[in-house]
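Researcher: Next entry in the queue.
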Amino acid sequence: MKSFITIFLWSLALCSNVDAKILWEKVWEEFDSNSILEIKNADSLNVVTLVGIEGFYTLVLKSDDGGRNWRKIFTDSNFHNPVHMPRSMSYPEKGFIIVLCDSGTFIKSTDDGITWKEGDIKEIHTSNMTAKVDMFNHDHGLMYDNKKYFISHDGFETYKQIYLPVSCVLLDFQMLSENFIFLMAVYYDGNPNYDEKFFKSTNGGNSWTEYYYPDYIFPMKIKFVDTLYGFTAGLQRTGFGDNTYDYIYRTTNGGETWIKVLDTLCWPPFGLEDIDVLDRKTAIAVGQFGKIYWTQDGGDSWQRDSNALIVNQLPPTMRVCIIDENTAIIGDYYNGIWRSYLATDVEEDKEPNQGIFLYPNPISSGNKLLLKLSSEIPDNYSLILYNALGQKVGCEYQTQETNTVNLEYDTSGLQSGIYFLFIKSRGKSIMKTFIIE
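Model: Structure for this entry, 437 residues:
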């Protein structure tokens, strides 16, 4: 048991909370059977979301106020014939939006979603789950589908096919300028976890330079802030079922070398899905079951954002875009869009003798936890307890009659692990963390 606690505390240290004043709210939810496929922002106000509904229905949402409010700018209920599954979207600048669907079909808008035009990559005729588009601006961009790459310099009015020097399966790519392309792939040898390679082209895909990337580390996303500084976020399988570790790698020399900056056993054991970078200091990565990591020091350290974990359900956080150092927008696989904001009504109880004091901590299972509430806690407060999975495991309503009161919280029936106790009153919350051995 001591070894378990030691490992758990070590993991907790790696997953320490970001500033407790960053909170999350759900800003859009409408359908029961859809998923957020992409979230992209052209600037701090203009954000676009690609939604796939029931597998074969395209919906594009637009926000003009940094993700606070959303409106529909495209629905294919009376457009595509036949309807094609949306796969990927790019929003490089205000005004230009392009959505790639399966079989090489795409739609684009040059007026920020007021009108749309259909297009087609004629060389593609089959569906491919890894179809992707990325635009540097409204002219220069790259598309991938069915193991074929196509580059355009006029917004895909015209295009040409480009080739990699070896047979690879695409993981992700990014276009940094008219001719500068980063691409992460894996050799097509039947093993999806082996022979990951990083490619760079500085002449629009006419030639490529190949660089080493660690084997068995499966990067789901790459994101560069410039031609030198970038990250990959992904996973490595543990060998036990589908369990995976979270991994983030960083490069400061354009992908020539990579350094591991996050390697954690944080629960739940599923890898990261997406990453977005604001500048050379600030980035955010997300993974399934509400897993979120922030960095404010260029990736030297990453803080686990537990505020997104403590919700009624653990959403499979799949897509993210960052607005500023405290604001990001996340899309989940259960039809929800979440937005972080800097709040002033929640505070971490940092001093052991202020607000609330817990004893003992850690505590043995079945014992009673002593809560000492000071005069900072007003009348009519509630105690809400969550486990490390974000599940509510206890809720009590109390009325305080004196300035200081001692309470006992029975931990019987609670399993070993970390718990988050919220004391809520008059619109404010104080969070305390304790461990049951």
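Model: The radius of gyration is 24 Å.
Researcher: Noted, moving on.
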